[in-house]
Amino acid sequence: MKPLEGLLVLEFCQYLAGPSAGLRLADLGARVIKIERPGEGEGGRSLSIKNLFAGDESVLFHTINRDKESYTADLRDAEDLEKVKKLVARADVLTHNFRPGKIEKFGLGYESVKQINPGIIYGVVTGYGSRGPWATKPGQDLLVQAMSGLTYLSGDRDDPPVPFGMSVADILSGAHLVQGILAGLIKRGKTNEGSLVEVSLMESALDLQFEVLTTYLNDGHKKPKRAREGNAHAYLRAPYGIYETSDGYIAIAMEHLHELGQKIGCEPVLKYEEKEWFSKRDEIMEHLRRSFKEESTSHWLGLLEPADIWCADVYNYPEFLNSEAYKTLRMDQGLQLGNGDAIKSTRCPIRIDGERIYGSRAAPSVGEHNESIASEFSL
Predict the structure, then answer these.
(1) Is the distance from CB of 329 to CB of 345 less than 8 angstroms?
(2) Which residues are catalytic?
(3) What stretches of the chain show up as alpha helix (H) in DSSP?
(4) pLDDT grade for 240, boundaries at 50, 70 and 90
(5) pTM for the whole thing?
Protein backbone atom coordinates (compact mmCIF):
# COMPACT_ATOMS: atom_id res chain seq x y z
CA MET A 1 0.00 0.00 0.00
CA LYS A 2 1.33 3.43 -0.93
CA PRO A 3 1.45 6.05 1.84
CA LEU A 4 -1.17 8.44 0.39
CA GLU A 5 -3.73 5.90 -0.82
CA GLY A 6 -7.26 7.00 0.02
CA LEU A 7 -6.52 10.72 -0.36
CA LEU A 8 -8.35 12.70 -3.05
CA VAL A 9 -6.57 15.62 -4.72
CA LEU A 10 -8.25 18.11 -7.07
CA GLU A 11 -5.71 19.77 -9.33
CA PHE A 12 -6.67 23.11 -10.93
CA CYS A 13 -3.15 23.55 -12.32
CA GLN A 14 -1.42 23.80 -15.65
CA TYR A 15 2.07 23.70 -17.14
CA LEU A 16 4.82 22.57 -14.72
CA ALA A 17 4.95 23.73 -11.10
CA GLY A 18 1.48 22.71 -9.89
CA PRO A 19 1.23 19.55 -12.01
CA SER A 20 4.67 18.42 -10.80
CA ALA A 21 3.30 18.55 -7.25
CA GLY A 22 0.29 16.49 -8.32
CA LEU A 23 2.64 14.03 -10.01
CA ARG A 24 4.50 13.40 -6.78
CA LEU A 25 1.28 13.05 -4.77
CA ALA A 26 0.03 10.54 -7.34
CA ASP A 27 3.34 8.66 -7.20
CA LEU A 28 2.85 8.34 -3.44
CA GLY A 29 -0.64 6.88 -3.86
CA ALA A 30 -3.04 9.83 -3.86
CA ARG A 31 -5.89 9.92 -6.35
CA VAL A 32 -5.36 13.07 -8.43
CA ILE A 33 -8.17 14.46 -10.57
CA LYS A 34 -7.23 17.24 -12.97
CA ILE A 35 -10.01 19.80 -13.40
CA GLU A 36 -9.61 21.00 -16.98
CA ARG A 37 -11.28 23.29 -19.48
CA PRO A 38 -13.67 21.47 -21.84
CA GLY A 39 -12.24 20.98 -25.30
CA GLU A 40 -8.57 21.92 -25.14
CA GLY A 41 -7.87 20.96 -21.53
CA GLU A 42 -5.02 22.58 -19.64
CA GLY A 43 -2.36 24.56 -21.48
CA GLY A 44 0.42 22.09 -20.73
CA ARG A 45 -1.03 19.62 -23.24
CA SER A 46 0.51 21.65 -26.06
CA LEU A 47 3.69 22.66 -24.20
CA SER A 48 6.38 20.55 -25.84
CA ILE A 49 10.13 20.25 -25.57
CA LYS A 50 11.87 19.72 -28.94
CA ASN A 51 8.39 19.43 -30.49
CA LEU A 52 7.98 15.90 -29.10
CA PHE A 53 4.37 14.72 -29.05
CA ALA A 54 2.71 11.40 -28.24
CA GLY A 55 -0.69 11.43 -29.85
CA ASP A 56 -2.25 14.87 -29.45
CA GLU A 57 -0.39 15.72 -26.26
CA SER A 58 3.22 16.62 -25.66
CA VAL A 59 5.56 14.01 -24.22
CA LEU A 60 6.29 16.47 -21.41
CA PHE A 61 2.59 16.61 -20.51
CA HIS A 62 2.37 12.82 -20.31
CA THR A 63 5.40 12.51 -18.06
CA ILE A 64 4.29 15.21 -15.60
CA ASN A 65 0.64 14.08 -15.49
CA ARG A 66 0.99 10.33 -15.32
CA ASP A 67 -1.44 8.34 -13.18
CA LYS A 68 -3.99 11.19 -13.00
CA GLU A 69 -7.65 11.40 -14.01
CA SER A 70 -9.26 14.18 -16.06
CA TYR A 71 -12.59 15.87 -15.37
CA THR A 72 -13.65 18.79 -17.55
CA ALA A 73 -15.73 21.67 -16.24
CA ASP A 74 -16.38 25.24 -17.37
CA LEU A 75 -16.09 27.23 -14.16
CA ARG A 76 -18.03 30.07 -15.77
CA ASP A 77 -21.03 27.74 -16.15
CA ALA A 78 -23.18 27.66 -13.01
CA GLU A 79 -24.10 23.98 -13.40
CA ASP A 80 -20.52 22.87 -13.96
CA LEU A 81 -19.35 24.99 -11.05
CA GLU A 82 -21.83 23.34 -8.69
CA LYS A 83 -20.57 19.92 -9.74
CA VAL A 84 -17.01 21.00 -9.03
CA LYS A 85 -18.05 22.27 -5.61
CA LYS A 86 -19.48 18.82 -4.84
CA LEU A 87 -16.07 17.37 -5.63
CA VAL A 88 -14.44 20.01 -3.44
CA ALA A 89 -16.64 18.91 -0.55
CA ARG A 90 -15.21 15.38 -0.82
CA ALA A 91 -11.57 16.29 -1.49
CA ASP A 92 -8.62 16.16 0.92
CA VAL A 93 -6.43 18.49 -1.11
CA LEU A 94 -7.01 21.22 -3.71
CA THR A 95 -4.20 22.80 -5.71
CA HIS A 96 -4.21 25.67 -8.18
CA ASN A 97 -1.84 28.07 -9.89
CA PHE A 98 -4.24 30.77 -11.04
CA ARG A 99 -2.90 34.30 -10.93
CA PRO A 100 -3.81 36.10 -7.67
CA GLY A 101 -7.50 37.01 -7.49
CA LYS A 102 -8.71 34.91 -10.43
CA ILE A 103 -10.00 31.76 -8.74
CA GLU A 104 -11.87 33.88 -6.19
CA LYS A 105 -14.10 35.07 -9.06
CA PHE A 106 -15.48 31.53 -9.31
CA GLY A 107 -16.14 31.27 -5.58
CA LEU A 108 -13.24 28.84 -5.16
CA GLY A 109 -10.83 30.98 -3.15
CA TYR A 110 -9.58 29.58 0.13
CA GLU A 111 -12.12 31.31 2.36
CA SER A 112 -15.01 30.11 0.19
CA VAL A 113 -13.67 26.57 -0.12
CA LYS A 114 -13.10 26.41 3.63
CA GLN A 115 -16.83 26.96 4.10
CA ILE A 116 -17.54 23.99 1.85
CA ASN A 117 -14.84 21.74 3.31
CA PRO A 118 -13.22 22.97 6.58
CA GLY A 119 -10.61 20.19 6.59
CA ILE A 120 -9.26 20.74 3.10
CA ILE A 121 -5.56 21.35 2.45
CA TYR A 122 -5.57 24.20 -0.05
CA GLY A 123 -2.34 24.56 -2.02
CA VAL A 124 -1.47 27.59 -4.12
CA VAL A 125 1.44 28.18 -6.50
CA THR A 126 2.12 31.71 -7.71
CA GLY A 127 4.99 33.31 -9.55
CA TYR A 128 5.93 35.94 -6.97
CA GLY A 129 3.47 35.69 -4.09
CA SER A 130 -0.04 37.09 -3.84
CA ARG A 131 1.02 40.66 -3.02
CA GLY A 132 3.64 43.16 -4.10
CA PRO A 133 4.63 44.89 -7.33
CA TRP A 134 5.33 41.64 -9.19
CA ALA A 135 2.23 39.71 -8.07
CA THR A 136 0.53 39.86 -11.49
CA LYS A 137 3.65 39.25 -13.60
CA PRO A 138 3.78 35.99 -15.58
CA GLY A 139 5.07 33.23 -13.30
CA GLN A 140 7.48 31.71 -15.80
CA ASP A 141 10.65 29.83 -14.92
CA LEU A 142 13.20 31.72 -17.01
CA LEU A 143 11.81 35.08 -15.89
CA VAL A 144 12.08 34.03 -12.25
CA GLN A 145 15.64 32.81 -12.73
CA ALA A 146 16.53 36.11 -14.38
CA MET A 147 15.04 38.31 -11.64
CA SER A 148 16.22 36.24 -8.67
CA GLY A 149 19.95 36.59 -9.35
CA LEU A 150 20.28 32.89 -10.18
CA THR A 151 21.71 33.52 -13.64
CA TYR A 152 24.84 35.15 -12.21
CA LEU A 153 25.95 31.96 -10.47
CA SER A 154 26.44 29.67 -13.49
CA GLY A 155 28.89 30.12 -16.33
CA ASP A 156 32.35 31.70 -16.15
CA ARG A 157 33.46 35.20 -15.13
CA ASP A 158 33.19 36.87 -18.54
CA ASP A 159 30.02 35.08 -19.60
CA PRO A 160 26.70 36.93 -19.77
CA PRO A 161 23.99 35.80 -17.31
CA VAL A 162 23.60 32.01 -17.68
CA PRO A 163 20.28 30.34 -16.73
CA PHE A 164 19.92 26.72 -15.74
CA GLY A 165 19.18 24.59 -18.79
CA MET A 166 15.96 23.33 -17.24
CA SER A 167 12.84 24.54 -15.38
CA VAL A 168 14.48 24.52 -11.97
CA ALA A 169 12.15 27.03 -10.25
CA ASP A 170 9.03 25.22 -11.49
CA ILE A 171 10.11 21.79 -10.32
CA LEU A 172 11.48 23.01 -7.01
CA SER A 173 8.32 24.99 -6.17
CA GLY A 174 6.29 21.88 -6.97
CA ALA A 175 8.40 19.94 -4.48
CA HIS A 176 7.93 22.70 -1.89
CA LEU A 177 4.17 22.56 -2.44
CA VAL A 178 4.18 18.83 -1.75
CA GLN A 179 6.14 19.40 1.46
CA GLY A 180 3.62 21.99 2.60
CA ILE A 181 0.66 19.77 1.71
CA LEU A 182 2.11 16.83 3.63
CA ALA A 183 2.68 19.10 6.63
CA GLY A 184 -0.92 20.29 6.34
CA LEU A 185 -2.18 16.71 6.30
CA ILE A 186 -0.20 15.92 9.44
CA LYS A 187 -1.62 19.04 11.10
CA ARG A 188 -5.14 17.96 10.13
CA GLY A 189 -4.52 14.57 11.67
CA LYS A 190 -3.72 16.32 14.95
CA THR A 191 -6.30 19.12 14.96
CA ASN A 192 -8.98 18.20 12.37
CA GLU A 193 -8.31 21.59 10.77
CA GLY A 194 -7.38 22.32 7.18
CA SER A 195 -4.57 24.59 5.99
CA LEU A 196 -3.71 27.14 3.34
CA VAL A 197 -0.35 26.25 1.80
CA GLU A 198 1.30 28.87 -0.41
CA VAL A 199 4.50 28.69 -2.42
CA SER A 200 5.90 30.79 -5.24
CA LEU A 201 8.47 30.24 -7.94
CA MET A 202 10.42 33.25 -6.71
CA GLU A 203 10.59 32.07 -3.10
CA SER A 204 11.63 28.61 -4.25
CA ALA A 205 14.37 30.13 -6.42
CA LEU A 206 15.58 32.15 -3.44
CA ASP A 207 15.53 29.11 -1.17
CA LEU A 208 17.61 27.27 -3.76
CA GLN A 209 20.21 30.02 -3.32
CA PHE A 210 20.09 30.10 0.48
CA GLU A 211 23.79 29.35 0.95
CA VAL A 212 24.99 32.03 -1.48
CA LEU A 213 22.38 34.58 -0.37
CA THR A 214 23.40 34.01 3.23
CA THR A 215 27.01 34.62 2.19
CA TYR A 216 26.03 37.82 0.40
CA LEU A 217 24.02 39.11 3.35
CA ASN A 218 26.86 38.48 5.80
CA ASP A 219 29.84 39.45 3.65
CA GLY A 220 29.32 43.16 3.11
CA HIS A 221 26.91 42.66 0.19
CA LYS A 222 29.69 41.70 -2.22
CA LYS A 223 28.36 40.40 -5.52
CA PRO A 224 29.02 36.76 -6.48
CA LYS A 225 32.28 36.43 -8.39
CA ARG A 226 32.44 33.58 -10.86
CA ALA A 227 35.79 31.95 -11.60
CA ARG A 228 37.42 33.00 -14.87
CA GLU A 229 37.17 29.47 -16.31
CA GLY A 230 35.72 26.20 -15.05
CA ASN A 231 33.46 27.94 -12.54
CA ALA A 232 31.34 25.56 -10.46
CA HIS A 233 30.46 27.78 -7.49
CA ALA A 234 30.77 31.53 -7.29
CA TYR A 235 31.75 31.53 -3.62
CA LEU A 236 34.02 28.49 -3.29
CA ARG A 237 37.78 28.68 -3.47
CA ALA A 238 40.22 26.78 -5.66
CA PRO A 239 40.46 24.01 -6.67
CA TYR A 240 36.65 23.60 -6.79
CA GLY A 241 35.63 23.49 -10.47
CA ILE A 242 35.76 21.67 -13.78
CA TYR A 243 39.01 21.17 -15.71
CA GLU A 244 39.76 20.03 -19.22
CA THR A 245 41.91 16.91 -19.60
CA SER A 246 43.61 15.54 -22.70
CA ASP A 247 40.43 13.70 -23.74
CA GLY A 248 37.53 15.22 -21.77
CA TYR A 249 36.87 16.92 -18.45
CA ILE A 250 37.19 16.22 -14.74
CA ALA A 251 35.27 17.75 -11.84
CA ILE A 252 37.19 18.50 -8.65
CA ALA A 253 35.09 18.99 -5.52
CA MET A 254 37.80 18.77 -2.87
CA GLU A 255 39.26 21.94 -1.34
CA HIS A 256 42.56 20.51 -0.09
CA LEU A 257 44.66 22.29 -2.70
CA HIS A 258 48.10 21.22 -1.55
CA GLU A 259 47.20 17.53 -1.43
CA LEU A 260 45.74 17.78 -4.92
CA GLY A 261 48.76 19.68 -6.24
CA GLN A 262 51.13 17.06 -4.88
CA LYS A 263 49.14 14.20 -6.39
CA ILE A 264 49.02 15.64 -9.90
CA GLY A 265 52.53 17.13 -9.79
CA CYS A 266 51.40 20.74 -10.00
CA GLU A 267 54.11 22.33 -7.88
CA PRO A 268 53.18 26.01 -8.50
CA VAL A 269 50.00 25.69 -6.42
CA LEU A 270 51.92 24.56 -3.34
CA LYS A 271 53.17 28.10 -2.72
CA TYR A 272 49.71 29.53 -2.08
CA GLU A 273 48.58 29.89 1.53
CA GLU A 274 45.09 28.77 2.40
CA LYS A 275 43.87 32.35 2.85
CA GLU A 276 44.74 32.93 -0.85
CA TRP A 277 42.79 30.01 -2.24
CA PHE A 278 39.80 32.25 -2.93
CA SER A 279 41.42 35.66 -3.49
CA LYS A 280 43.83 34.12 -6.04
CA ARG A 281 41.42 31.47 -7.30
CA ASP A 282 41.79 32.28 -11.00
CA GLU A 283 45.58 32.03 -11.12
CA ILE A 284 45.55 28.85 -9.01
CA MET A 285 42.98 27.25 -11.32
CA GLU A 286 45.09 28.24 -14.34
CA HIS A 287 48.06 26.30 -12.93
CA LEU A 288 45.81 23.29 -12.36
CA ARG A 289 44.37 23.53 -15.88
CA ARG A 290 47.82 23.24 -17.39
CA SER A 291 48.52 20.09 -15.38
CA PHE A 292 45.20 18.38 -16.02
CA LYS A 293 45.52 18.83 -19.80
CA GLU A 294 48.64 16.67 -19.80
CA GLU A 295 46.80 13.38 -19.16
CA SER A 296 43.44 11.70 -19.78
CA THR A 297 40.46 11.81 -17.46
CA SER A 298 40.81 8.10 -16.66
CA HIS A 299 44.45 8.64 -15.73
CA TRP A 300 43.58 11.36 -13.23
CA LEU A 301 40.65 9.41 -11.78
CA GLY A 302 42.88 6.39 -11.30
CA LEU A 303 45.35 8.56 -9.43
CA LEU A 304 42.99 10.71 -7.36
CA GLU A 305 40.15 8.40 -6.37
CA PRO A 306 42.37 5.94 -4.44
CA ALA A 307 43.72 8.96 -2.53
CA ASP A 308 40.16 9.90 -1.54
CA ILE A 309 40.34 13.16 -3.44
CA TRP A 310 36.76 13.93 -4.47
CA CYS A 311 36.56 13.98 -8.25
CA ALA A 312 34.41 12.71 -11.09
CA ASP A 313 34.23 12.26 -14.82
CA VAL A 314 31.99 14.74 -16.64
CA TYR A 315 29.47 12.65 -18.55
CA ASN A 316 27.05 13.61 -21.28
CA TYR A 317 23.64 11.90 -21.40
CA PRO A 318 24.64 8.94 -23.62
CA GLU A 319 27.68 8.22 -21.48
CA PHE A 320 25.79 8.38 -18.20
CA LEU A 321 22.61 6.59 -19.30
CA ASN A 322 24.68 3.70 -20.61
CA SER A 323 26.76 3.44 -17.45
CA GLU A 324 26.36 0.60 -14.98
CA ALA A 325 25.76 3.19 -12.24
CA TYR A 326 22.65 4.49 -13.99
CA LYS A 327 21.36 1.00 -14.77
CA THR A 328 21.71 0.05 -11.11
CA LEU A 329 19.35 2.88 -10.11
CA ARG A 330 16.60 1.47 -12.38
CA MET A 331 15.19 4.93 -13.04
CA ASP A 332 13.61 4.04 -16.40
CA GLN A 333 9.94 3.29 -16.79
CA GLY A 334 7.48 3.04 -19.65
CA LEU A 335 4.16 4.91 -19.83
CA GLN A 336 1.29 3.28 -21.69
CA LEU A 337 -0.78 5.53 -23.91
CA GLY A 338 -4.46 4.92 -24.60
CA ASN A 339 -3.73 3.94 -28.20
CA GLY A 340 -1.39 1.15 -27.13
CA ASP A 341 1.83 3.06 -27.77
CA ALA A 342 4.39 3.67 -25.04
CA ILE A 343 6.83 6.41 -24.15
CA LYS A 344 9.88 6.25 -21.89
CA SER A 345 10.26 8.34 -18.77
CA THR A 346 11.92 8.36 -15.38
CA ARG A 347 10.27 7.01 -12.24
CA CYS A 348 9.58 8.64 -8.90
CA PRO A 349 12.96 9.07 -7.16
CA ILE A 350 11.60 8.04 -3.74
CA ARG A 351 11.82 4.53 -2.28
CA ILE A 352 9.50 3.44 0.54
CA ASP A 353 10.58 0.47 2.65
CA GLY A 354 13.05 -0.45 -0.05
CA GLU A 355 10.43 -0.44 -2.81
CA ARG A 356 10.83 1.72 -5.89
CA ILE A 357 7.72 3.57 -7.04
CA TYR A 358 6.62 3.17 -10.65
CA GLY A 359 3.57 4.46 -12.50
CA SER A 360 2.59 3.01 -15.83
CA ARG A 361 -0.38 5.17 -16.93
CA ALA A 362 0.36 8.14 -19.16
CA ALA A 363 -1.70 11.32 -18.84
CA PRO A 364 -5.45 11.03 -19.39
CA SER A 365 -7.20 12.45 -22.43
CA VAL A 366 -9.29 15.58 -21.90
CA GLY A 367 -12.38 14.68 -19.87
CA GLU A 368 -11.57 10.97 -20.03
CA HIS A 369 -13.07 10.31 -16.60
CA ASN A 370 -16.08 12.64 -16.66
CA GLU A 371 -18.66 9.86 -16.75
CA SER A 372 -17.09 7.64 -14.11
CA ILE A 373 -16.45 10.57 -11.75
CA ALA A 374 -19.97 11.94 -12.25
CA SER A 375 -21.41 8.52 -11.40
CA GLU A 376 -19.15 7.91 -8.41
CA PHE A 377 -19.76 11.33 -6.82
CA SER A 378 -23.41 11.73 -7.91
CA LEU A 379 -22.67 14.92 -9.83
Answers:
(1) no
(2) 170
(3) 17-27, 59-64, 78-90, 110-116, 141-148, 168-191, 201-208, 210-217, 257-264, 276-279, 281-292, 297-304, 317-321, 324-329, 370-376
(4) very high
(5) 0.95
